[in-house]
Amino acid sequence: MEKIVEQGLLYDFYGSLLTGHQQKIYEKVVYDNLSLNEVAEAEGVSKQAVHDLVRRCTAIMREYEKKLGMIRRFGKIRESAEKLRTMASSGEIPRTQASVLLGIAEEICSDLES
Length: 114
Prior knowledge:
Number of helices: 6
Strand content: under 5%
CATH superfamily of the largest domain: Winged helix-like DNA-binding domain superfamily/Winged helix DNA-binding domain
CATH class of the largest domain: Mainly Alpha
Shape: elongated
Distance between the termini: 23 Å
Number of strands: 0
Largest sheet: none
CATH architecture of the largest domain: Orthogonal Bundle
Order of helices and strands: HHHHHH
Structural class: mainly alpha
């Protein structure tokens, strides 16, 4: 997984478990795409401090994922919903059942996106 995508996913799922200060710095580096120097200057800390904080936060959130598996579960649920969509659209099952399956799949996908 590309590093920035992984960091984004980790933050989406586990960012609220970080302290406010950690969230602020992490967001500036990962989401606002500011350089370590820019963040360090704005926060009045060293570039190394920003680098260490981002690395530590990423490690913390990876550990959360290792223990809780929320990103993995999210992916499996999304994959299952896509299978339901495909099955409902295949024409291999009766129309009424396909309509019900498609409705369930759309509801699951909608819930996952909100």
